[in-house]
């Protein structure tokens, strides 16, 4: 990233965001995304010279114009601002517009949990998801992430798209020339298909849980693009397609300081109690373990920090391309 002109501090923040996702096993939203972001810079769709601007600033709120700067950096700054405001007000909401692909929503939610707060993060995405009764994409995958602090138990954390699957998983299988599972997308006639070749130019993703996912995806569109005065619906441009238009996604970040409601230690202990209640429930026949949201990711991170990571093929393909783009041999990185 520094080779492409990104300041060292911003490059380090971005690396931390995406590599953390890798350690959680969320490889679709990890370091493979850096190549596309740097291409956005080279294509003039993102800026190396501008700075985000806080356009509105209230006791428990803020609106930031990212001005097409590195999305991970402005998103970390936005959540840190939400956390600082929540310490005073109990709850704070910060919206960001004119940004790009920020990776996994869970990372930013976890920043709040690290400070003892409940964190949530949302982002809108260019339309790729249809809605019941339509055969064209109308909403983005519009992810939602949350993180809740605990005491002795792992932080409860979830990061999901409101589509049946994240679009990046379709791109990953398409890059490898593989079919996708049935029930993920529809074709141009609105019929189910396992061929990802036409997506996203034709066809559309399905919302998770039918009308329920549609409703949540629409809410996130409101909490990001609409409330931020940014792009929404068909106005949002794709950051991965060959399009000269500057990136224009919107994000939002919510922090809730639990100490404004009850003692913070008591809250974390009560969360531990809830976790154990669920984990120790009678298991279904053949089930070895009941997982809380985030436990698979924390198990993956422990293993990654102790033993390293075996990156999937779709990540290595992207990193090899990044090596060609930057002129930095992979041998130098792994040396």
What are the key terms here?
335 residues; alpha+beta; Ribosomal Protein S8, Chain: A, domain 1; seven-stranded mixed β-sheet; three-stranded antiparallel β-sheet; 10 helices; 38% helix; 16% strand
Report on the architecture of this protein.
The protein is of the alpha+beta class and 335 residues long. It has one domain (8-264): Ribosomal Protein S8, Chain: A, domain 1 (2-Layer Sandwich), CATH 3.30.1370. The protein is built from 10 helices and 10 strands. The chain has helices at residues 8-23, 33-42, 71-89, 105-114, 167-175, 211-226, 264-279, 295-307, 313-326, 330-334, and strands spanning 53-58, 61-65, 91-99, 117-123, 144-148, 156-160, 185-186, 192-193, 204-205, 249-257. The strands form 2 sheets. Strands 1-2-3-10-4-5-6 form a 7-stranded mixed beta sheet, with helices on both faces. It has a 3-stranded antiparallel beta sheet with strand order 8-7-9, with no helix packed on it. Strand 2 (61-65), helix 3 and strand 3 form a beta-alpha-beta unit. Helix 1 (8-23) crosses helix 3 and helix 3 (71-89) packs parallel to helix 4 (105-114).
Strand order of the largest sheet: 1-2-3-10-4-5-6
| Binned strand content | 15-25%
End-to-end CA span: 18 Å
Question: What is the helix tally?
Answer: 10
Rg result: 20 Å
Shape assignment: globular
Number of strands: 10
CATH superfamily: Malate/L-lactate/L-sulpholactate dehydrogenase, NADPH binding domain
CATH topology: Ribosomal Protein S8, Chain: A, domain 1
| Helical fraction | 25-40%
Could you tell me the mean pLDDT?
A: 95
Q: If classified by CATH, what would the architecture be?
A: 2-Layer Sandwich
CATH C-level label: Alpha Beta
Largest sheet: 7 strands, mixed
Secondary-structure-derived class = alpha+beta
Poorly predicted ranges: none
Q: How many discrete structural domains?
A: 1
Topology order in helix (H) and strand (E) letters? HHEEHEHEEEHEEEHEHHHH
